[in-house]
Design a protein that fits this description.
about 210 residues, mainly beta, Porin, eight-stranded antiparallel β-barrel, five-stranded antiparallel beta sheet, 1 helix, 15 strands, elongated
Length: about 210
């Protein structure tokens, strides 16, 4: 009877899937895109600002876990060229699911990982478009909102402070296509490039 109980307890420990809730804070720095029109070209992008998010994770296997994540970034859409610049107050909201590939198992205090995932990103403006427009012959900056697909990639390391508490440092790249409703090229113009939000973050989590 004692040996059977030991086997049951061992199996439960091996196949347990602890959950994690957590929060992150960091900084979102953009690699922006370009709009090219007959009258010239301009940079179209988002301001670099702070970012904050939430995590709901599940430790699926010894070297693989999954996380549903939300990230808020306070970055204003803007256009700029030849010393002229205009912006609209705005922000973005990203929701994505990531797979984390851990170098070490659950028993280790240090768990470096690589991450890849996907989801959606909602670009939201909260103020009026500039009037007059700074670069109307190249691109018009609007106060529209738009949802775009999202790919995430990066990595980091988790460190277990206590039995149920861990901290992490990580870097994620949030990759989205051009949000055409926010930046409208002039007639005959086109956009070039994709948006990348390079985001270093620090986080804390609780497992249960």
């Amino acid at each position: 009877m004692g040996s059977r109980l030991w086997v049951v307890l061992w199996a439960t420990a091996c196949f347990a899937q602890p959950y994690e809730v957590g929060a992150t804070i960091g900084y979102g720095a953009y690699r922006n895109a370009t709009v090219i029109a007959p009258a010239g070209k301009a940079e179209a992008g988002f301001g670099n600002r702070f970012a904050a998010g939430a995590i709901l994770g599940e430790d699926l296997y010894r070297h693989l876990s999954g996380e549903l994540r939300y990230l808020f970034q306070d970055g204003d859409p803007f256009v700029s060229a030849g010393g002229k610049k205009g912006n609209v107050q705005g922000q973005s909201h990203a929701v994505h699911y990531d797979l984390l590939f851990h170098l070490n198992g659950r028993e280790s205090r240090w768990r470096p990982y690589a991450a890849v995932g996907g989801g959606i990103k909602y670009f939201r403006t909260t103020g009026p478009a500039p009037s007059p427009q700074p670069l109307p012959s190249i691109v018009t900056l609007t106060n529209e909102n738009q949802i775009r697909w999202l790919v995430t990639a990066g990595g980091g390391v988790k460190y277990r402070l206590y039995k149920h508490v861990s901290v992490r440092g990580e870097f994620l790249d949030y990759i989205t296509p051009f949000p055409h409703r926010l930046f409208v090229p002039a007639q005959g113009g086109t956009d070039r490039g994709i948006f990348q939000q390079f985001t270093p973050m620090f986080g804390i989590g609780y497992t249960f």
